[in-house]
Amino acid sequence: MSYDKTLGEALRRQGVSRRGFMKFCATTASLMALPPSMVPAIAAALEQARRPSVIWLSFQECTGCTESLTRSHSPTVEGLILGQISLDYHHTLQAAADSAAEHAREEAMKENYGKYLLIVDGSIPVGNPGYSTIAGISNKDMLLETAKGAAAIVSVGTCAAYGGIPKANPNPTGAVAVSDLIKDKPIINVPGCPPIPVVITGVLAHYLTFGTIPELDDAGRPKVFYGETIHDRCYRRPFYDKGLFAESFDDEGARKGWCLFKLGCKAPVTYNACATTKWNAGTSFPIQSGHGCIGCSEPNFWDLGGFYKALSVPNDPVTLVAGAAAAAGVAAGAAMAMRNRKAKADAKSKHQTVTIDDLEK
Amino acid sequence: MIGRPIDIPIRAENGDEPVSHGNALPLLHEVRHALERLLAAGEETVIDLRSIPMGPGDEARLEAELGTGEVSARLETAIGPSVALETRFPGVWLITHYNSEEQILSRFIEVTEVPAILRSQPEDVREGLDSLSEQLLQQTNE
Prior knowledge:
The complex is a heterodimer.
Chain A: H1 7-13, H2 18-31, H3 39-48, E1 53-58, H4 64-70, H5 75-83, E2 86-90, H6 98-111, E3 116-121, E4 124-125, E5 133-134, E6 137-138, H7 139-147, E7 150-156, H8 157-162, H9 164-167, E8 175-176, H10 178-181, E9 187-190, H11 197-210, H12 223-226, H13 237-241, H14 252-255, H15 274-277, H16 320-327, H17 333-342, H18 344-351
Parallel strand pairs in A: 1-2, 1-3, 3-7, 7-9
Antiparallel strand pairs in A: 4-8, 5-6
Chain B: H1 24-41, E1 45-48, H2 58-66, E2 72-77, E3 80-86, E4 92-98, E5 104-111, H3 122-141
Antiparallel strand pairs in B: 1-5, 2-3, 3-4, 4-5
């Protein structure tokens, strides 16, 4: 595929009809968590999109993020998205190694200077650079050098975004996040351990579609995927509102699928898309399989206290929105979601009564 | 001491009971409002089912409530099949996009007279016209 062909042209050449393209756009909008009313705008933009060069650097990580992405469940559509980028360097996936691989990176940097997208997974050891090197180059040096010519940086996974497990107390390698070292480039954090694959591709699709970075929250995360807590989007939320909790992992409440709040679920303070996007072809997510959320997409989640220690109970656990729905005798899950979208700010301020600082109480 | 299996407090659930977490009904109310808007002002509505919190059983409940109507169309596109199904409520369509391995890519409820994806598209019509002309030209030459 040549660099100058647009996505619209590439798809047509592959025998994709306009109907197929409409389906592709509808799915991409869903992937990007954008409303279906945006589909025409997405279609217009995607048709003209050209494939950007992507350099992927892996530092102190477990390769779980790459596994998550390459095992993603919709090979055709995401394959098309990935086929539409030029992945010029990814030392875990590419066949070349050592100096040949580094040569590929240098070539891609030179050819697309100022325009390529840099994706990073893993944290960077600054205490002793010897902890992690690639072809004899320290992670820090490689990041600083590669970041210079990048248009934007995507920190994939909690390690790159916030330091993750390598940074967990006592942080033996002196691990830091990408944003601790790079201050002069736009950085998109896509945390999660690992992040949801469609969230990774959704961010790439956004960049491909609009050529811009999506709107970010205080923690550098795209609001479309990380704008609401797992708790606000959880199908078990109606049980929380009714005060129905599992008290242990094998009691009546657990069997009936009640709220896992008392068993340490961190959903009320965790911003991610698991509750609606789910995992493994939309099959399930941790809470659906009976385990509380561990808050893996939050900064420093590893050091925030026990996974099974309950968050403190907020003063007003039942929000006005939930109260109204319960009073109307409606099980509030989907209704809540719709109302929340309309009164998102209101609902959010209600839920900030539980903060990270409350974790150890 | 090793406990006998009988001591473990496990009770088998009755698998026949329909499980639902009550998230289908509020969605049906949304659909009812959308139908009213379609009738009154011709306004179409699309609901992305991936953006709605669904527990186990909720989607099955929703499908059962919506039922099936007069039209079921299957599209075979180069990126996998799609199914457009009119529910038993005329004007309410369930659109499911699959990949080539028949896994669901995305799912929408469309409240409209006819889903856009069922219409022949001008780009495809133009291409079809070209190939028909070529076909006829070949036959003239024979």
